[in-house]
From TrEMBL:
PROSITE patterns: NA_SOLUT_SYMP_1, NA_SOLUT_SYMP_3. This is Na+/galactose cotransporter. One of its GO terms (cellular component) is plasma membrane. Keywords: Membrane, Transmembrane, Transmembrane helix. CDD domains: SLC5sbd_u2. It is a multi-pass membrane protein. The chain crosses the membrane at residues 12-34, 54-75, 87-108, 129-154, 160-179, 191-211, 246-267, 288-311, 345-372, 393-415, 421-443, 450-469, 481-502, 541-558. It comes from the Bacteria. PANTHER family: SODIUM_GLUCOSE COTRANSPORTER 4, SOLUTE CARRIER FAMILY 5.
Length: 559
């Protein structure tokens, strides 16, 4: 953030602090209560695989409702307008539905404890180790984004130095995650989901009233820099960085909607872990599908406030018009809260922001401790130890990961739009993983050597595109560089995987059952629900169809 804490200091009073304090009491209380249910490593890392679908479904979406959604998407809304909706309706929901219908049966049915462990069974140690290390690194970096923003809010609220705010914020998340593991993270994510909605909905309504309703917002946005183009989702040239409408649509659909989106939602253990904590296959499949419904409507309380801030907050209006001043797009939401909300609602809004950042960071840390403990420490460093030993390792990694996030928080502080930074990270880590994963799931011939070679080459190609963009060789403003890097990483991974496969030895079919689509019996892929899960309104395919129809309608309405 460019803005100083003094300029952004919120006029909080006792009632605002009381609301925040009550929230922290509940958050820490959940951690202490969840600790009673933790007696094994499975309890700590996967909640004993005992949670209902509605809980994991809300946690699934809340785990993503951190810095990416709240500050990143409001910043995008301020900068690009309605094109930001693509991150939800193109870049999230279709992949979430695919995860629930097609991929969860392989994750849950195979009995693996993490996504890297699935890679170990499908490809062997090479791809597994590359995936586990890259995932661990990514989680520390992304946790730093959430922690930086969480610390920034504490800095604004209390006037503390940023470093002290970051440390205190990290200590709170660390406490409940250390005590209760995944269960504490998930139940807090459910609480945080409702707090976030309760905080952002009034801000959106007050903001719309301030600009004269939707019609007033349309008029003001049309007259602002960027013009009326910001009111249409398509073709989204400003977002994609392409001058051509056709290339922009291709970049958004392929780069964001296919490679980045499917790479994130279907292979990112942060999200998949929530579904794997459920009590049965039906609940696991419904988890991302249930999460897709709030995902469809969240942009209306995240993106719209960003658009309002860009035309209502004087400092942001100047920054957007001239590129000068002491604020940037990341400040959009806090500036709007400062200008619009009275005391009481101010405390609720701050609590919602804190809840969002804590949910995001806790999700990163809880998935990091699982992957590091199971996929790195237990697999390669200390095998065949008692279960209690790995439970202790998980808690130690929780502490170490939080300390690492404190360091990476200051890396995130250097970006004017944090979505640029996050999308770049996703192009490095998620796009090549998705290519390897999807090819290996549907092509039984793909070999273990091709698995790790494709991953490494795909990641390096994405980094190369990033370097070319940063040095000015490629001129792609907005998030076009991330979209291009994701597409290149995917293509390079696929091509090299095919070439290497043709020269190396595949695994026998007997070792691939339950891991490859064509070798897995239909009944194993579509476990028949029984009891309460058998009622028609709990069928995953029906719920997915309704969700998909909604995003088609919304894309048409806002085209």
């Amino acid at each position: 953030m460019l803005v100083s804490a003094e300029e952004l200091r919120l006029d909080a009073v006792a009632v605002d602090y009381a609301i925040v304090a009550i929230f922290f009491v509940f958050v820490l209380g959940i951690g202490f209560l969840a600790r009673r249910a933790v007696s094994t490593s499975l309890d700590f890392f996967l909640s004993g695989r005992s949670l209902p679908a509605w809980v994991t479904g809300l946690a699934f979406i809340s785990a993503n409702l951190g810095a990416i959604e709240i500050v990143g998407m409001s910043a995008n809304g301020a900068q690009y307008g309605m094109a930001t909706m693509h991150y939800f309706w193109i870049g999230a929901v279709p992949a979430m539905l695919f995860l629930g219908i097609v991929m969860m049966p392989f994750y849950y049915g195979s009995g693996v404890r993490s996504v890297p462990e699935f890679m170990l069974r499908r490809f062997g140690p090479g791809a597994h180790l590359v995936n586990a290390i890259s995932f661990a690194l990514a989680q520390v970096l992304i946790a730093g984004v959430n922690l930086f923003l969480l610390g920034s809010v504490v800095e604004v609220l209390l006037g503390w130095p940023l470093w002290l705010s970051v440390v205190v914020a990290a200590a709170i998340v660390l406490t409940y995650t250390f005590l209760g593991g995944l269960s504490a993270a998930i139940y807090n994510e459910v609480l945080q989901f409702f707090v976030i909605v309760a905080a952002l909905l009034p801000l959106t309504l007050v903001g719309l009233h301030r600009v004269g309703g939707w019609g007033g917002l349309v008029d003001e946005v049309s007259a602002s820099p960027g013009g009326a183009e910001q009111l249409s989702a398509w073709p989204g040239n400003a977002l994609s960085g392409f001058g051509s409408d056709v290339l922009s649509v291709i970049g958004i659909v392929f780069g964001l909607g296919f490679v980045l989106s499917f790479g994130y939602w279907t292979t990112n253990f942060v999200e998949v872990q929530r579904a794997m904590a459920t009590k049965n296959m039906s609940a696991a499949r419904r988890t991302p599908i249930i999460g897709s419904f709030p995902k469809i409507f969240i942009p209306f309380i995240v993106v719209i406030p960003g658009m309002i801030a860009a035309v209502e907050v004087s400092e942001l209006v100047q920054f957007k018009a001239e590129g000068t001043g002491s604020v940037d797009y990341n400040d959009a939401l806090l500036l709007l809260i400062r200008d619009l909300l009275p005391n009481g609602l101010l405390g609720l809004a701050l609590t919602g922001l804190l809840a969002a950042f804590m949910a995001g960071m806790a999700a990163n840390v809880s998935s990091l401790n699982t992957v590091f403990s199971y996929d790195i420490w237990q697999t390669y460093i200390r095998k065949d130890r008692p279960d209690a030993y790995y439970l202790r390792v998980g808690r130690v990694v929780t502490v170490v990961g939080t300390v690492g996030a404190i360091g990476t928080a200051f890396v995130a502080s250097g970006y004017a739009n944090l979505m640029d930074y996050l999308q770049q990270l996703f192009s490095f880590f998620n796009a090549p993983l998705f290519a390897t994963f999807i090819l290996g799931m549907f092509w039984k011939r793909m070999t273990p050597t091709a698995g790790w070679v494709g991953l490494v080459a795909g990641t390096l190609s994405a980094v190369t595109v990033f370097v070319l963009s940063e040095t000015g060789v490629l001129d792609l403003p907005g998030q076009g560089a991330a979209f291009l890097a994701a597409g290149v990483a995917f293509a390079v991974d696929i091509v090299l995987s095919v070439l290497v496969t043709l020269r190396t030895q595949p695994k026998p079919d007997s070792e691939l059952r339950g891991l490859v689509y064509s070798l897995t019996p239909k009944e194993q892929r579509t476990e028949q629900p029984v009891g309460e899960d058998a009622v028609w309104w709990r069928r995953p395919t029906l719920l997915a169809g309704i969700s998909f129809a909604l995003i088609v309608v919304l894309n048409i309405v806002f085209a």
